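Worked example (supplementary).
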Amino acid sequence: MEAEIYSKLLLTFGLVLLAAAIGGKIARFFKQPAVIGELLAGMIISPFALGGFINDPVILNFAVINGHFVEGGIAIPEFAPMQIIAEIAVIALLFIAGLETDVRAFIRNGVTGGLVAVGGVVLPLLFGYVAAMYFFPDIGTVGWLFVGAVLTATSIGITVRILMDMGRFNSRESIIILVAAVVDDIIGLVILSVVVSVAGSGEVNGLGIAVTALIGFAVWLALLAIGIFGHEFISKYILAPFKRSKTMPILALILTVLISYMVTLVDLHPVVGAYAAGLLFASTKEKEEIIEGARPVMLFLAPFFFAYLGMQVDLGSVWQVIVPVLVLLALAVIGKIIGCYIPARLVGRLSHNGGMIVGVGMVPRGEVGLIVASAGLLAGAISRDIFGIAVVVSILTVFFVPTMLKPLFARDAVLPAKPAKK
Amino acid sequence: MEAEIYSKLLLTFGLVLLAAAIGGKIARFFKQPAVIGELLAGMIISPFALGGFINDPVILNFAVINGHFVEGGIAIPEFAPMQIIAEIAVIALLFIAGLETDVRAFIRNGVTGGLVAVGGVVLPLLFGYVAAMYFFPDIGTVGWLFVGAVLTATSIGITVRILMDMGRFNSRESIIILVAAVVDDIIGLVILSVVVSVAGSGEVNGLGIAVTALIGFAVWLALLAIGIFGHEFISKYILAPFKRSKTMPILALILTVLISYMVTLVDLHPVVGAYAAGLLFASTKEKEEIIEGARPVMLFLAPFFFAYLGMQVDLGSVWQVIVPVLVLLALAVIGKIIGCYIPARLVGRLSHNGGMIVGVGMVPRGEVGLIVASAGLLAGAISRDIFGIAVVVSILTVFFVPTMLKPLFARDAVLPAKPAKK
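After joint prediction of all chains, the assembly is encoded as:
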């Protein structure tokens, strides 16, 4: 019966949320960011672990493996309701992140952030390409490029959450990381366009790629400009009519969902749109009221996203490919840190410690790595095995961040020149 | 590309929310409950109206007609992500309703509420059966029974929302309506079991039906009892550990989702579980804190549910069957009002005005009517045409309620014996 499927989806939604809540709680007990506990909880209940024992096609079994993708790279036209909920969840998270960002500081650090993004792309792409040549000689240039591209991505969602959890969200390092993560997404989009077009036609369309990049930047800058120059208009004509009925924060959330969709039309990731929407409302005088009303929605949904991400990891099969996983993981971490550290110090004039914070903050690949890997699988450029490796590496990068960031921030707090914590 | 489908689902989610927000806003401007505007907005953007012009299988086109059910009553195994979001939305609404209910008053009015429910079932069932015999002589006893059963349902979600919108949520009449709506769901479940088993085997299994009813009541009473006798335990061992991290309201919401699933195992509607979960937490001393944290989630999602409901109505095809629609609609309204009014006055000793409030409050069928009609379609007992009529009648009943309740409550407020409004 149809109704039974919906009940099972409801159960799955509830179980993932519950696992995330418990995982987050345990992580906090051990003085770790909640996001780590949520990811681990997801790994434990994943269809590759506990979920597999339930032996039901719906309950805790909606991950990528179950018919969503099939061997050979042909997608089955089946929607995963949990995927769309996860997407709404990460949109709510990035929206709050945008709202809580200091917009002036964001713009002031634009150049440094942009160069950090470029540095953080070049090295991992090179490292990934070479390592893939060594481990998977059969897959050819396009496959190697995909593996490299997976390593270039930066997950803004995870870094944001960790910085929030640590209460260091508006430090200068954090702002640079946020700018860089946004620019990184646009660069990632360009790289993805290149590899997909190479995989398809074997040729690179230089003009087309330049146009893609330009449109991505233009849309993003336009959203930022609307917020800065149009915030009085937004307050007066869009938000004010919804103020009395207390649905104003909800309206802002709704517009964020629509903006997140709109940026996908120029192939940006929806979370980049969500972050831009947050920045847009951050300039309005209703900012605090919006945060207050929208934060509970984010607190409810965001843990779902991280647990859902953890559910994609097949821990059992990792052991069979442990050597490439570890090597790629090391290259992903080292490449990103060095690539970001250099521009952060040279251009941003950060201290050694500050440069390290930026480098480490850029390490997590998370969902963005998954997206690139999925595109590679769909294009037939990488096999199911390599896809699995890419997924595991993407998610394992996340675990490094809080462990490494903590001592760096602690040392940072001792220095006298820094502005006081809120 | 897969990613495109998710983007389109995101757009749909955003558009439905936006339409609901604007519809609610317009309704409030005309001093009507927001829910009416949300339903109308849903009708306007439905795939049968504006949504149809978009000509895309995903954007605004996820309603029942699009492959979700096919001719002949065989369900296509395709999940509608919007359906599961709508379900989570109405769960959040009923959870808040439970939390805001005066538990003692709820229990004190148990007998009256129960008898109101019975009265509100008997007359509409009889009226629906007879009218179906007249209009659709071909479909036979089982079909007539299904049409009658559609008319017996009561949608607790809609009544709750209208009472909330009117600020009359904890009046005695409202409490009786809530009790009756819960009992009604259990009676509805019994009737549904009867008609489905008759449709399947042609026989009625009396013992099986009695067991179904008993289990339904037992689960419900057990949840109520856990709240009343176990609230200190719940506060101390379940809620307290999540208090410091401010995730306690979220945890309560998560447990509500799980309880909503659990009641579906005994074939109750998930919203009945959500309401019971709300009552369960209403006895704890953390009640206010939970309401504060969970209400924004409800405010964000609930309008989605009502707009989604409106999207099921095919206004265009209503004109072709306007006579049976109007007759069934009149019988649904009159049958419910008389059937509920009599026990409310005789047993509950309410005034004429109070009895009318209870009767009118029980009128909306909404989603519950849709569920019964869908079951009839799936069982092959009613045709697609009659299904369409049942859907339209179910949803049109909703529009009567605020229009009729308003003058009744206004007259009520003048009487001196009533307790003062909050």
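Two points are worth noting when inspecting this output. The domain at 90-414 of chain A is CATH 1.20.1530.20 (Na+/H+ antiporter like fold). Chain A is about 75% helix and 0% strand.
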